[in-house]
Design goal:
Chain B: InterPro entries: ACP, ACP-like_sf, PP-bd_ACP, Ppantetheine_attach_site. Chain B: Pathway: Glycolipid biosynthesis; KDO(2)-lipid A biosynthesis. Chain B: It holds the Pfam family PP-binding. The complex is a heterodimer of chains A (403) and B (88). Chain A is of the alpha/beta class and 403 residues long. Chain A has 14 helices and 14 strands. Chain A has two domains: 238 residues, Thiolase/Chalcone synthase (Peroxisomal Thiolase, Chain A, domain 1, 3-Layer(aba) Sandwich); 150 residues, Thiolase/Chalcone synthase (Peroxisomal Thiolase, Chain A, domain 1), CATH 3.40.47. A ten-stranded mixed sheet of chain A has the order 5-4-6-7-1-8-14-13-9-10, sandwiched between helices. In chain A, helix 3 packs parallel to helix 7 and helix 11 packs across helix 12. Chain A is globular and about 65 Å long. The chains are: A alpha/beta (403), B mainly alpha (88). The interface between A and B is small, with 6 and 7 residues.
Chain lengths: 403, 88
């Protein structure tokens, strides 16, 4: 069977403007969550988020590009640039047609929607900029990546709420495995930190006003983040033949549907996805040393996730480490699995387990080793990354150290 | 007044073409200036915003529109006409 490896990674998020900065912040257990800054924030009851501060689009893109790139596309382009530069790949001829891009996002061009709704509804304007549609559409980021790097193979966008990125990366991996493509640019992006984006989430009453404290008994909800992470997935022999630096192996993937509730998670659905990923990666439960949790910091997710891990791993659940980096970068919704994969790669490559920060009180319903507050050193050969979306759609990736 | 309209239309077109207004002449076409279909709809949007007029233009078939875009001079003339009728 064709194997899939990662040969490039890139990111921008509240913890850093690139992968190195992000990993340094994760090692130090730094919190990227701060007071939100945007128009009408004073009308919100939730005013914190993992926002990328001091970001200037004009430092990165010309005027024409900015008129077509929503913030979620801008983040994608910056992360893709870093990942593709690292991979050392260029795309022409058959290489171009054998390469594609599959990205995850939930809200797509949310800032573009928000600004233009404000303009026509609140300001009473009757004319909008001609590029509103191509700027806000969910596939804009994937399309601009394909255009910028000449990726002419299978390309599309996956939108499964909080599991979008994991579903996208799972698709990318399967497309290389099946022989449909040799290289896939994949990951995800989100930029929902605007008045409408937060106002909608406020309505659900699942947001914290002070901090994201996954697995802590006093946790009181999730905190949103923004940003992107993009990876270059490549067929193993292809990468080896050109002497590429291999960052990690994407060993397995599984997805499942709870078929139960539009917002409440299910232990059985999550456990099936976890077990499926182990099976697909041909891993024994004991091989897994670290899980990057979905760990949203809501009462329901964290206890359900811990129960699912206990169910899937049996006794070994007490020996593995599980942390939620959302405590640092916030919940990037459709981009979250991509940024969290960086923590998985750091565990495999550097032997550093990113902590769950903000942890204050043990919860008997989350009685696993959640790596509270401080990073830890450990030798790690295999990891999982969990994502469990609203709508009961679960997607779990399994990674191994570079072969 | 009409000089002002001319100057403002040229400024809008020049910005789209990434040129100085002095480098845009009335006899040039949008093609000469390197303005593509997206640049054209953006220019029309900017003209509508600048003069608070509604430009009858359909991107499906630009040549069939009432709005003449065959040259910079034609666009200026069409804008002047629209301002005259729509202001009335």
């Amino acid at each position: 069977m064709r194997r899939v490896v990662i040969t490039g990674q890139g990111s921008i998020n509240a913890l850093g403007r690139n992968v190195a900065e992000t990993l340094e912040a994760m090692r130090e257990g730094r919190c990227g969550i701060s007071n939100l800054e945007f128009q009408d924030v004073e009308r919100l009851s939730i005013r914190i988020g993992g926002q990328i501060k001091g970001y200037d689009p004009e430092a990165h893109f010309n005027r024409q590009k900015i008129s077509l790139y929503d913030r979620f596309t801008q983040f994608t382009m910056l992360a893709a640039e870093e990942a593709l530069t690292q991979s050392g790949l260029s795309f022409s001829g058959e290489m171009a047609t054998r390469s594609g891009v599959v990205l995850g996002t939930s809200g797509g061009g949310m800032n573009t929607l928000d600004e233009n709704y404000r303009s026509v509804y609140e300001d009473g304007k009757n004319r909008v900029h001609p590029f509103v549609v191509p700027k806000l559409m969910n596939n804009a980021a994937a399309s601009h990546v394909s255009m910028e790097w000449n990726l002419k193979g299978p390309s599309f966008t996956v939108a499964t709420a909080c599991a979008s990125s994991n579903h996208a990366m799972g698709q990318a991996m399967q497309m290389i495995r099946s022989g449909m493509a040799d290289v896939m640019v994949t990951g995800g992006s989100e930029a929902m930190l605007c008045f409408g984006g937060i106002k909608a989430w406020e309505g659900l009453r699942v947001m914290s006003k002070d901090a994201c404290r996954p697995f802590s008994a006093n946790r009181n909800g999730m905190v949103q983040g923004e940003g992107a992470a993009v990876f270059v997935f490549e067929e193993y022999e292809h990468a080896k033949a050109r002497g590429a630096e291999i960052i990690a192996e994407v060993a397995g993937f599984a997805m499942s549907s709870d078929a139960a509730d539009i917002v409440m998670p299910s232990k059985q659905g999550a456990a099936r996805a976890i077990k499926g990923a182990l099976l697909d990666a041909k891993l024994n439960p004991e091989d897994v040393c670290y899980i990057n949790a979905h760990g949203t910091g809501t009462a329901a997710n964290d206890k359900t996730e811990c129960a699912a891990v206990a169910d899937a791993f049996g006794h070994h659940a007490d020996d593995l480490m599980i942390s939620s980096t959302k405590s640092m970068h916030g919940h990037l919704i459709g981009g979250t699995g991509a940024v969290e994969l960086l923590a998985c790669i750091m565990a495999l490559r550097d032997g550093v387990i990113a902590p769950t920060i903000g942890y204050q009180e043990p919860d008997p319903e989350c009685a696993l080793d959640v790596v509270p507050n401080e990073a830890r050193e450990a030798r790690v050969d295999a990891v999982l990354s969990n994502a469990f979306a609203f709508g009961g759609l679960n997607a779990v990736l399994a990674l191994r150290a570079a072969p | 007044m009409s000089d002002t309209i001319k100057d403002r239309v040229i400024a809008i077109i020049a910005e789209q073409a990434v040129l100085e207004p002095g480098d845009v002449t009335p006899d040039q076409t949008l093609e000469d200036l390197g303005i593509d279909s997206l640049g054209l709809v953006e220019s029309i949007f900017a003209i509508e915003e600048a003069f608070d007029i509604s430009v009858p233009f359909n991107a499906n078939d630009p040549s069939d529109s009432e709005f003449d875009i065959s040259s910079v001079a034609a666009i200026i003339k069409a804008v002047e006409g629209l301002i005259a009728t729509q202001a009335a």
